[in-house]
Design goal:
- The chain crosses the membrane at residues 21-41, 61-88, 100-124, 144-171.
- The chain is mainly α.
- The protein is 70% helix and 0% strand.
- Helix 2 crosses helix 5 (74-89).
- The chain is elongated, with a radius of gyration of 22 Å.
- The termini are far apart.
Length: 188
Amino acid sequence: MKIPVIQHQLLNEKRSVTYSILFKVWLLVAVYAVLHDQYIVRIAPEHFTIYHDPLLGIEHPATLAAVYAFGASFSPGLLLGFSCAVFARGGSLPKLSVKCILIGVIAVIILTELSAAFSGFIVYKSGSVIYPESWYPSHSLRMMVTQTIQVTCYIAAAVLSVILLVTLLAIRYKNKPNKAVLTTVNRS
């Protein structure tokens, strides 16, 4: 039985490289999530103290935000890490370096945060929401700003992550060795 190419190539990858990608991408996502929620909690502490369930008896808003962010980073961080490993190193196309993957993830994080912050600024300046009213637990300006930032963050991160994966694959395809067969003509 023939093993599919993508699975075969991933199995030939050193596990340490795959684990390195998974861990480093998750770590970038986790650090970003914790830092991101630290400014969210400073804009509206109630975002975490009232509109999130109590967690482990933590009452300090910044600590609560950090714990929530850290916990919430596992699924998206590992999913993105695994996807990056497959799209950047799986299959028969030339493999991209771990550094290339991490640069792409950092770009996604920066663009995500810029989009989120800009959306929050728009809500702050206009005083009105940009998403459906039902997406906001409260209509205080502070909560409208932080909820807009959070929703934009989720949407932007998903869209930009897909763009990253397609870009990684496109770079690999572009770097594919040309297998054109050269034929010689015998002119006698």
